[in-house]
Every structure is written in C-alpha cells, then in structure tokens.
Amino acid sequence: MTKLKEYKMFIDGSWVESESKKTFETLNPENNEPWAKVPEASAKDVDKAVRAAQKAFEGEWPKLLPRERGKFLRSIGNQLRENAELLGKIETIDTGKLFRETNKQANYIAEYYDYYAGLADKVEGTVLPIDKPNFQAITTRIPIGVVAAIVPWNSQMLLTATKLAPALAMGNTVVIKCSELAPAVMFEFAKLIEKTGIPKGVVNVISGFGEPCGKALTSHNLVEKVAFTGGPETARHIIRNSAENLSEVSLELGGKSPVAVFEDANQENAINGITAGIFGATGQSCIAGSRLYIQNNIYEEFLNKLTKRAEKIKIGAPMDADTEMGPLSNFKQLETIEKNIKLTVDQGGKIKCGGKRHSFSNKGYYFPPTIIECNNHNLPTAENELFGPILSVMKFETEEEVINKMNDNQYGLSSGVYTKDINRGLRVSNAIRAGITFVNTYRLISPSAPFGGMKDSGYGKEAGIESIKDYTRIKTIWFNTSDKPMDDPFTMG
Fold first, then answer.
1. Is the pLDDT of residue 420 over 90?
2. Annotated catalytic residue within 30, 40, 111, 286
3. Which residue, 171, 226, 231, 415, has fewest beta-carbon neighbours within 10 Å?
4. Per the confidence metrics, is the pTM higher than 0.85?
5. Do residue 223 and residue 298 come from a single domain?
6. Is 286 annotated as catalytic?
C-alpha cells in the first residue's frame, strides 16, 4: 500500500499536529482511494489559532505602512506563479478538477494578491462638513481584527484569495479553515505563505469538520469577522454561532443560475458559453448555468445542437491533457444528482443525453454531461442546486415570461443572457434578481469585478475595490480647532 502524504496545520508560524493527534484521510476522486491525511482540529486547536492571530493583530502587522503590507501580498502572488504547477497537481489529486484548469487558475489567482497589494495604500478617509464652528471631524478606516475565512473544496485557492488578500491589505490577521473534503492544497499554500516571511500568526491554516472545528471558530469571542463560502444550511449555523459575539458575517453561497437564449442569439457563441457554464469544472461551480430557457422559435434546433456538443465532451482522468471533464468530487454529490434526476423523470422530465453514471471508471465518481427537458421549471433538477453537470432545459415565448421564470427561484447568484439586441440585453440583465449577469458570455472572473449574490445566495461582495472596505471599520475623530478652552458645561447662561 502506498504511504499516505501527511500534512500538519499551520498555526503561529509553526507546523503542528492536532491537540488530540486525530487525523482524517482525504480521497482522490479519480479512484476513490485515500492519498493524504490531515489533522482533525479540536476546539483547543481552534482557540490556539485564533489567539495566535489576535496576538499578531496586537503586534506590528496592522502598524506597518500599507505599502509594506502590499509587499507581502506581492510576494504571495509571486510564490503562486512560481509554484502553480505543484499547486495545480495537488488540487487536481484532491478534487478531481482538471489539471489544465487548476494549473492555469493558480497562476491567475496571483493577480488577486497583486490587485489588493496595489489597493493597500489607496483606501482613504473623509473630511466631514461639521455643523459646529471651531471643530473639525475626519473619518479613517481601521482594520477589523481577527478574520475567520471558511472556504469550500471546489475553488479553495480562488475563494481564499478573495478573502485573504483584502484582509491582509487592511492589516487584519486571518484563520483559514480549509474544506474537510479537499484540504491538501491549502497546506501547500501555507508553505508558500511561510516563505514570504510574513510575521507569525498573521495567517493560520487549520483543518477539521463543522463540529467542533467550524463551530468553535465561528463562535470564538476573538473573531471579529467571518467570511464564508459554502451552502445556505451551513451559513445559517454560522450566523447563529456568530450572533453571540456580534461578529460581522459575509456569505457567498450557492446558486441555481438561469440562462436565457433568445431567437436572435449567435447560436455557436451561446452553445460555447452554456457548455462552459454548466459542464466546465464538471458543473461543480457555484455560478454553474444550470437552468436554460430557450425561446420557442429556435427551441428544437438549438437544443439538438447543444445536445450534440455535450455528447462530444471527452471524459477522462483529470491529469490527462486532452480530458475535458473529470469526476465528481465525492459520493454525496453523486447520490444527490441521481436522486434528483430520478424524481424529475418520474415527474415528466425527458433525458436528452447522459443521466447515468459513466463507464470510464468504476472507482471514481464519473457522471456524463446530462441534459433534461423540463416542462416545469420547478422540477427537482431545475429547482435544486446539484453541483454537477446537469442542465435543465425549458421553453419560453416572451421577454417578460422568461424574466419572471428566471427570477422564480430561491437563489440569486449568477445569470446569463444571449441576444444580439443590446437593448434587450440591458433590459433583461437589469431585471434579473442576481448579483451577476453575463451577456453573450459566461463563467468569467476578475480581481476588479465584484462577486456575490442575493436572496439565498448570500450577501456581501468579494473582489473589486469596494470589497477591501469590508475588512475595515470606520473611525470618526474630532478636533477642537479653537485656542480658547471649551465652555464650562455646567455654567448657566
């Protein structure tokens, strides 16, 4: 039996085992076999990490000039570029995502650290127009304190960057809880953090389960902000946990993103965008365009073209250069997908392609691109987030009809519109209740583009200029500009 790779947690600048010495295994989705083991953090481990972060916050880190903190961020970015191949391989082994995607993404994520390094010394205060003579008031922005960053397995490096980079730029310290489903890449990332020479305790990385690790972290009285990406149910637990300490919370949650294709759309462009949106990353993306509405006049033609394209997608091992779609990450996802497909078919849904486990491997969780026709957008596959390559397709007649259908869902993260009519594109994109709308494209990110949703998709924005302010608090400072003493407050007349 191959010896498992062993990792330790990164706390206060040191590599440590869990207090209980407990570990758990992480599986390779390609073959469903364990390949590494990581520490299982207890409440004591969480407390140690948080107190290390608090000590660092009380130290020199927030007192550094912003441009000096920016140098550390640029160093992180450089480490990512230099080690992109290693990070990509580790993330691929642990998640099943394609290596060509994880390798490219590791390089690109470096841009987020460069972006916030540049913003570190650009956050300004204000001079207030006070209504009192001989007084002046200003505002400045100060760091919050200890930030708990909780990230999911599917894009840990990216979703860490959108939290860690602005937090560090503003002088905060951070405890990162990596996903128990695929934690390995975060410990490899912590090794790169260590190489930058960043002060001890500024960044800490722990691993464990929701109970007790996640609960202890989100309810800790020294944690001032929780930045979470994950599912709505976990988010509700976090809100309850953080309420006792009145910690700030930002939530980037799931989605069931609708996409509309109008009859005048460039069909080749729309097919490419839809394919990327739902079958890229095996559909394991919070912005996956999993609800598709096609205008009546082109419905049959477009759906047939899309189906043929989906059937050509090459399924294979995630490290192979020619593989276009790899395995699902875990068995729970597979179970959820199969259950929802069965329920949908039982209620009248028609499978156009896919729908059953793929024969590529009987060890890994391979599931093919699946398209299901639904006469009701409230059928299970059209209504529930599945986190897999499952596309539910429906018809629409008018612009007003499709807007109503696109908005008729509990989620509001992303959306898409395909049309050559720019006026229609603007009207529809403005009318959709979602945090992001792609017009004639899909599945794009940028450090300068805010990311986040509404409704059950959460609140708060990650990335962009404004998000850096979410890691600060406004402080008001008053000045008495008069040379005369203040009036005696107890003198009458």
1. yes
2. 286
3. 231
4. yes
5. no
6. yes
